[in-house]
Write a structure and sequence with these properties.
The protein is an alpha/beta fold. It is built from 18 helices and 13 strands. The strands form 3 sheets. The protein has an 8-stranded parallel beta barrel, surrounded by 6 helices. Strands 6-8-9 form a 3-stranded mixed beta sheet. A two-stranded antiparallel sheet has the order 12-13. α4 (81-95) packs parallel to α6 and α8 (169-184) packs parallel to α10 (220-247). Bound molecules: 2-acetamido-2-deoxy-beta-D-glucopyranose (5 copies).
Length: 501
């Protein structure tokens, strides 16, 4: 019965969708809009133990458990960017990007993760030199580095101490951040503290899908989030107090979200979609932009914890000082988004084993008319427009940098699907800017190169450039989408005709 009802809603929704979609916006991107491409250390660098680098949780787990990565692969060599960075900068220069988003491998600069100022050996000098060279060369080529401090690859040494659920990591991360600002900050104007921490907390400490693959859903995931928020805030305050006046950059967190479209207009479903947004983006966004956990998260986790006979909520409480310490620690919003799903309300699950998904209490589905990527993610450009508008309305109109957006396909060089994807999503960004007056100042394509995509190994190519992982030399070849993106960057326009301002 419920199923049938739902089907009707899906069909209604489809009608609505077709009306909103597909025409490419013919307005121009603002003159100062920045276009870039992205990567992350573990996914491209290789050199996993080169020149004194320490082990990350991904090195550790991919070596220890051969079935953790579904394809049985690892990123020991990956794109070999550790050795090929000079040639990559030539590619980026040819592409014409304004910025390149990459991450620093924490264990490459601090092999144990720990920066004790008295023990000079804690700092791995070749790691520092590697990033310093990369950053200098980018600047020489007029490409702005957008640097992430922590993109999934926690030093294993700190995982041995419990990883992110351990609140002591706040200080370890803060020391690492200070080192990065001190060593590289003169040339870095855009910092991001964490990349997609909800993926790490929800899937790394709440399931087995990401390293460290510790399944403590409903408890460890929230503890992880709490530490990450405090670590982020501490790094932000360090930047503010010790570096900002000389270095003049901006710093924020990169938060990921899927657009959550209500499966129907029923109040329960509309609330379920909003609840899912609050339990994903809001779990990080609300403490940072508005202050404290989202109300609905406090209420839901409190309610279920009580019925599970916990003596207090599984959601750790912030003190008043902590709320104030975290609130406002952003200079822009870094947003990663790839897809959209339909959300409906679900019935309350039995009380027993704690669980994040039971706390959220939703059902997700997709519209059968939506095209999908090789990852089976729905391609729904208007979802990004709605998400950008939601961020604007929920968080008081912040400046937004789209820090990731892209699609995986079958690896062909003739990647028309990728071109259509980026054109559609860039058009949605234009709609957000021109129709909804959202303050989006840049877009970053994921990814620069075909990369190691976590548990999917090399099976999900997202790159503008193809990488041949079977060849020791890891040759790069531009795909057709390079030509497309180059033209967009050069003209600030998506249409074949000249764009209007
Ligand atoms: C929801 O309501 C809007 C505006 O009232 C309407 O245009 C739309 O068709 C409705 N959507 C569904 C799925 O019923
Ligand atoms: C290795 O990883 C797989 C896939 O996540 C998992 O099913 C298995 O339990 C893991 N093995 C060990 C020994 O942890
Ligand atoms: C909580 O405690 C009550 C009273 O002892 C009991 O009836 C109920 O089954 C418990 N709930 C769970 C989830 O253990
Ligand atoms: C799905 O893909 C096909 C083939 O590329 C295209 O013709 C169609 O317009 C797409 N549908 C939507 C809803 O984008
Ligand atoms: C890969 O996808 C393209 C369309 O984007 C298609 O033309 C090509 O046949 C596909 N190749 C394989 C090997 O499936």
């Amino acid at each position: 019965m419920f199923r049938q009802k739902k089907l009707v809603f899906v069909i209604l929704n489809t009608l609505l969708v077709t009306r909103v979609s597909n025409a490419i916006n013919t307005r121009a991107f603002p003159d100062d809009f920045i276009f870039g491409a992205a990567s992350s250390a573990y996914q491209v660098e290789g050199g996993w133990n080169a020149d004194g680098k320490g082990e990350s949780i991904w090195d550790y787990l991919s070596h220890k458990n051969k079935t953790f990565i579904w394809t049985g692969e690892n990123a020991d060599v990956a794109c070999d960017t550790y050795n090929k960075w000079k040639q990559d900068i030539l590619l980026l220069k040819d592409l014409g990007v304004n910025h390149y988003r990459f991450s620093i491998s924490w264990p490459r600069v601090l092999p144990t993760g720990y920066a004790d100022w008295l023990l000079i050996n804690d700092i791995n000098e070749p790691g520092i030199v590697y990033y310093r060279n990369l950053i200098k060369a980018l600047k020489e080529n007029n490409i702005e580095p957008v640097v992430t401090l922590q993109h999934f690859d926690l030093p294993q040494y700190l995982q041995d101490l419990g990883g992110w659920p351990n609140p002591n990591l706040v200080d370890y991360f803060a020391d690492y951040a200070r080192l990065a600002f001190r060593e590289f900050g003169e040339d870095v104007k855009y910092w991001t503290t964490f990349n997609e921490p909800r993926q790490v907390c929800q899937y790394g400490y709440g399931s087995w899908v990401l390293a460290p693959a510790i399944s403590t859903s409903g408890v460890g995931d929230y503890l992880c989030t709490r530490t990450v928020l405090l670590a982020h805030a501490k790094a932000y305050h360090i930047y503010d107090e010790e570096f900002r006046t000389q270095q003049n950059g901006v710093i924020s967190m990169v938060i990921d979200a899927t657009w959550e479209e209500p499966v129907s207009n029923r109040t329960e479903d509309v609330e379920a979609a909003e609840r899912q947004l609050q339990f994903t983006f809001g779990l990080y966004g609300n403490p940072i932009y508005n202050g404290n956990w989202p109300r609905v998260v406090i209420d839901r986790v409190g309610f279920r914890s009580e019925h599970e006979n916990f003596t207090k909520s599984r959601l750790p409480k912030f003190t008043h000082e902590e709320i104030e310490y975290i609130k406002g620690t952003y200079d822009y919003v870094g947003l990663n988004s790839y897809t959209t799903e339909l959300v409906g309300d679900a019935s309350e699950e039995e009380f027993g084993q704690p669980s994040y998904t039971k706390d959220v209490r939703i059902e997700t589905s997709t519209d059968p008319s939506w095209n999908t990527t090789a990852y089976s993610w729905a391609i729904v450009p208007w979802g990004l427009r709605k998400l950008l508008k939601w961020v604007k309305d929920t968080y008081n109109n912040p400046k937004i940098l789209v820090t990731e957006n892209g699609c995986s396909d079958n690896g062909t060089l003739d990647d028309d699907m990728r071109i259509d994807y980026h054109r559609g999503y860039l058009s949605a960004v234009l709609d957000a800017i021109h129709e909804d007056e959202v303050d989006v100042f840049g877009y970053t394509a994921w990814s620069f190169l075909d990369s190691f995509e976590w548990i999917m190994g090399y099976s999900q190519p997202f790159g503008l450039y193809h990488v041949d992982f079977t060849d020791d030399d890891r040759p790069r070849t531009p795909k057709k989408s390079v030509g497309f993106y180059k033209k967009v960057i050069a003209t600030h326009c998506l249409s074949d005709e000249e764009c209007t301002k």
